[in-house]
Design a protein that fits this description.
The chain is rod-shaped. The longest helix is centred in the C-terminal third of the chain and has 29 residues, at 233-261. It contains five helices and 17 strands. By secondary structure, it is an alpha+beta fold. It has three domains: 24-217, Immunoglobulin-like; 229-259; 272-345, no CATH class.
Length: 348
Amino acid sequence: MKTRCFDQVIKILLMSLFFIVVSTPLAVTDNNYTIKSYDVNISINNNNIYNVTETILVYFSQESVGITKRIPIKYYNYKHNVSDINIINEENILYNYTLEKDGDYLDIEIGSPDQLISGYKTYIISYYYDMGEDIYSYRDEINWNILNNTWNSNIYRCNFKVELPKSFTHSNIMLSTDASKARDDSSVIWDVRDNTIFGNTIRALNPNEVLILTISLPNKYFLDVTQKPKNIIPNVLIVGIFIIFTLSLISYLEFKLNRRSIKPNTSHTPPFNLNCAEIKYLYNHRLDTHDVNYIMIQWANKGFVKIEKKILRHLGIFTTAEFFITKTNEINSTDEYEVNFFNAIFSL
């Protein structure tokens, strides 16, 4: 009896352990498909352009439109070109797909809304990826997500093969399934022969897990690569500052030169309608006989008299300059003494 009870307990424990083991590796997702296998084949050219072919076997548990393949297009702080995209099935029949850029990703939406699919489907996706110039001046590198973190699905197995254009140091290879660690290949078995790296995962990957390949390479390993876009902002700032400085200097010099050539307009009109004699008297409280000259000039300005300068010859030898004052109009003044003075002079 005790032996039979013990056997039942052992069976229950084994069954519980079995269900735990079966359910543990794969996280629960809300997707209606899982990826049974994901094969990646990459051939890297001398100019750092990647020829990528990905063969994805997908199982759809219910009718669906298809899948979305997301390609990161931003590395080294600039965006890269993806070209010659082709998507077929195992019978070489083309899939319908649309392209859409979403921030730092190029989304390939595969399938047609009017043609739902279910069960097993194979997608063979090929494209060229121009990795171009990296950010290092002293070395080159390969830094590529064999699997990126955009798959919201379990991936049961990933096989990969990466071929480089020429020899390199094999000890510089780093593989990782943890984005926070440069080297964590505990979930991968891999090997390298000549210039080709190949391997596969040894456990099912959870949604959004990655497989990253990093290789440090000698400087100038890649030749004639696409140059990264130049940052023109510093140059624009320098040119802008130079233009502002030049315009400011020109404006300053023009102001200094013009200020020297400016001649202010001066006015000799007496204030409060005073005549010259009155101003002279207010200034020092006296008038002299030669002060009459000032009032004569003022009368000439007002058109009451005309002043003429004539050269007179005496005895045929000596010449003198004489001024002649001729009345041209009656005086128009509100000052009675000025009118009397004017009339007295020209009544002589």
